[in-house]
């Protein structure tokens, strides 16, 4: 009896142990692998199920639901910059890696994936994965003007915390805000005790403020410019409405002028200049979209404006050249914009479009030495009337003028035009942002 009793006492816990092991085994395997994977991609370096569902506000909703937790993190948590593991904080990673920040900008998911794929392998990145709360090597150069004597990112955002609420914590966006808004309000961008120049009353501060305005220096980050290289290889002379709801029509798109001295088509010159302008604007930080990049397209004037609308462009610049038969002595640059009584556009768009026309004409003339012609403000320009943003047609010069025709076809002169127009665009946004 005693032996049997002992045997019974030993058998019960062993059986229970087997049951516990069987029940626990699936959870153990799942927690160790599947909880850090989503659609076959591992996030184990930037995500921990236990941490996410206990330490984050949104993650707590998915406690006990590992599949939903990882899905939520990938789809939403990464975009919000949620810390999902003790060893990686995306804010620290962004703030601590300036070169990576120049490359990835504000694309938060890209930082997670950089660390997940390669960052964790290098000590440089591992040291910056957590614990950094201040921006390292924040940008201080605005366009071509260096502002480090009067501006420090960390000081500025601590002194004016509302800035981050308005534009976010991207160092480019904050610097842009300081220049376009803060300096106008004479805000202090750097600790005056560490730099006497930082005081808004100092000569250095005033000098830099004046220099930014006079050099048309601007950082175009966050702004979208639509460039429309006028015309195309084959025109379409069927008609379309000049404005939304209008019964008046014009040809959809023409093939443009021809240079009898350069032997180049206007649509060719327009695209050549547009590409140079695109590259110049991109170098200044702008996002640029183009209605066409080749000649063999069919895009009507309405479709060009609609493309700009869909792209959410801040402005639209339409590149053209002029041609007047029998007027070979005429030369110079001028622009078309909407008239003050245009019924298709808001007054704000009209006013800003007219100002953009002046700035573009003046800036191109300054860069190339061309004559400034008188601008025209019309109500029958289809591409302008259908655009929801300020839109200007730049007539770069006269292809009916022998000298100007040859200059318009010259790559070096085209570059001068591009830089001039870019300066005009800079000045426009300096005034209206």
Characterise the protein shown here.
This protein folds into 4 domains: 32 residues; 105 residues, no CATH class; 74 residues, no CATH class; 209 residues, Aminopeptidase (3-Layer(aba) Sandwich), CATH 3.40.630. Helix 12 crosses helix 17 and helix 14 runs antiparallel to helix 17. By secondary structure, the protein is of the alpha/beta class. Strands 8-5-9-12-10-11 form a 6-stranded mixed beta sheet, with helices on both faces. A two-stranded antiparallel sheet has the order 1-2. Strands 3-4 form a two-stranded antiparallel sheet. It contains 17 helices and 12 strands. It is globular, with a radius of gyration of 30 Å.
> Main sheet, how many strands, which sense, barrel?
6 strands, mixed
CATH homologous superfamily classification of the largest domain: Zn-dependent exopeptidases
Q: Return Rg in Å.
A: 30 Å
Name of the CATH first level of the largest domain: Alpha Beta
Instruction: Record the strand order, biggest sheet.
Output: 8-5-9-12-10-11
Range of strand content = 5-15%
The number of helical segments is: 17
Estimate the helix proportion, in percent. 40-55%
Q: Report the end-to-end length measured between terminal Cα atoms.
A: 94 Å
């Amino acid at each position: 009896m005693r032996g049997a009793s002992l045997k019974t006492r030993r058998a019960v816990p062993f059986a229970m142990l087997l049951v516990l092991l069987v029940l626990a085994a699936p959870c153990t395997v799942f927690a160790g692998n599947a909880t850090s994977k989503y659609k076959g991609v591992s996030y184990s370096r930037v995500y921990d199920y236990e941490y996410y569902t206990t330490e984050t506000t949104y993650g707590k909703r998915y406690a006990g639901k590992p599949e939903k937790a990882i899905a939520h993190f990938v789809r939403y948590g990464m975009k919000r910059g949620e810390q999902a593991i003790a060893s990686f904080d995306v804010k620290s990673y962004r703030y601590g890696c300036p070169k990576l920040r120049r490359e990835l900008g504000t694309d938060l998911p890209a930082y997670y994936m950089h660390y997940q794929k390669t960052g964790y392998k290098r000590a440089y990145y591992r040291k910056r994965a957590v614990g950094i709360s201040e921006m390292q090597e924040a940008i201080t150069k605005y366009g071509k003007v260096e502002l480090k004597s009067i501006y420090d990112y960390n000081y500025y955002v601590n002194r004016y915390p509302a800035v981050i609420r308005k534009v976010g914590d991207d160092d480019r966006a904050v610097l842009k805000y300081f220049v376009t808004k803060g300096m106008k309000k004479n805000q202090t961008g750097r600790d005056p005790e560490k730099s006497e120049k930082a005081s808004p009353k100092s000569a250095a501060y005033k000098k830099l403020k004046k220099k930014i305005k006079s050099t048309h220096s601007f950082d175009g980050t966050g702004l979208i410019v639509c460039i429309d290289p006028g015309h195309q290889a084959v025109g379409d002379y069927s008609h379309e409405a000049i404005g939304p709801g209008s019964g008046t029509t014009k040809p959809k798109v023409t093939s443009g002028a021809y240079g009898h001295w350069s032997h180049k088509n206007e649509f060719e010159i327009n695209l050549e200049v547009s590409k140079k302008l695109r590259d110049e604007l991109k170098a200044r930080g702008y996002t640029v979209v183009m209605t066409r990049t080749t000649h063999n397209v069919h895009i009507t004037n309405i479709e060009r404006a609609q493309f700009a609308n869909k792209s959410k462009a801040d402005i639209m610049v339409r590149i053209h050249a002029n041609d007047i038969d029998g007027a070979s002595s005429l030369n110079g640059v001028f622009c078309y914009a909407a008239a003050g009584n245009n019924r298709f556009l808001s007054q704000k768009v009209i006013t800003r479009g007219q100002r953009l026309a002046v700035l573009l004409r003046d800036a191109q003339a300054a860069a190339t030495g061309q004559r400034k012609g008188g601008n025209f403000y019309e109500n029958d320009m289809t591409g302008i009337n259908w655009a929801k943003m300020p839109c200007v047609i730049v007539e770069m010069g006269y292809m009916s003028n022998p000298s100007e025709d040859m200059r318009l076809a010259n790559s070096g002169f085209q570059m001068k035009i591009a830089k001039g127009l870019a300066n005009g665009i800079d000045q426009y946004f300096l005034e209206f942002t």
